[in-house]
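Most newcomers find our protein records easier to grasp once they have seen one. A record pairs a protein's sequence with a compact description of its fold. An example says more than a description, so a record of this kind follows:
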Amino acid sequence: MSADDWVRGLNRLVPRADLPITLQGGEPTLHKNFYDIVSGINAQHPLDLLTNLEIDPDEFMRRIAPDRIKRTSPYASIRVSYHKDQQDAPVLFKKVRYLLDRGYSLGVWVVDHPQFRDHTMTIKKMAEDMGIDFRLKEFLGSYQGENFGTMRYPEAVNAPQLRHSDCRTTEFLIDPAGFIFRCHSDLYANRFPIGHILEKDSPKLLGQWVPCSVFGKCNPCDIKVKFNRFQEHGHSSVEICNISGPYAPNKELVSS
């Protein structure tokens, strides 16, 4: 969508005072009007940013004040992702430190992949020596025949059979075209959008139990056991109940 449509749609939202609008992707800063979108969102809406920080930090500071993406929370409002072999850790950490010293709220998050544990521990120490908040995210997937990730409903991911269930979500997910989805599984498959942020009538499904016919195709991000915004462990974005017996094969099953 255009910058004007994004601003108009996001400004229609009425988030709770302690919940931010999170700009993420992909990489949100790649939008050609990223700075216009940020400046156009109502100032009373708190913002979070998930980014690889492949930006010009001086332009970022010219366009976005430190307090615009900074809210009261036990973790940074600008959460920087590091990807081995795609980024240079010392260069990235220097940029993070540069922005931290100028009042921005940043931390670095890394997926704790078992194959790269030694490298991750090395850069963890590097970041911490620079006074950077460095946190690990649990790896979700299979590696050398072992499944990783703490799932609330482990049988819901990549199952051989599909089942019916009821589910409810705590997240309001918006795709690049402005369509709203109840979970990442639906979002990534472009399946069952529940509305659009420019529509007059907002969807009423958030927080309600609704039927689902694709239990078995759930995305790990939705059902992993994680920390909530208060950094209390045990939260999952989606709750599921009333799981039926299998009714069809999962044709998208990925074999180990």
Summary: The chain has two domains: 1-139, 150-256. The mean pLDDT is 91. The helical segments are 3-10, 34-40, 57-63, 89-100, 117-129, 184-189, 220-223. Residues 56 and 95 are 9 Å apart (CA to CA).
